[in-house]
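Practice problem: predict the structure.
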Amino acid sequence: MIGRELGVRYVMEGSVQGGADRVRVNAQLIDTETGAHLWAERFDKPRADIFDMQDEITTRLARTVGIELVAAEGRRAERERPNNMDAVDLTMRGWAILNQPLSLRRDRAACDLFDEALKLDAQNVEALIGVVLSWQRTSHLRLDQSGRATTNRAYRDHSGTDAGS
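Answer:
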């Protein structure tokens, strides 16, 4: 399979079609292990807007593919090791939740996963960043004016020091 040959788990596949006055770009993200299509999108614009289309495609692909890959890795980790979630798995699951629309419940769930990851590996930078971002988002969602104090508390809980020190 192409994934093994390239040494990758996911492949972005696409095509460009042009007409007299329109350009269509198709893109899809494929799991090379299962062949499953994780995401697909079509961009269709007038040829005159080609540079705007390029900017739109680049922006949407970067954001969407990042989110889809985190979600896919979280599902894979959960599927492969449901009873043995190590720090990386927990971190990936936390980021998959954090990349969903803002919600206090989801941010708390993500923070719980990051906390568990840090219990297994206190040097897990991605989990520490996730904790801080979860706390920050939670403070904003609650309209909490003490965002710095909340961020300092999250940092202190996991490093033993104060971020402002």
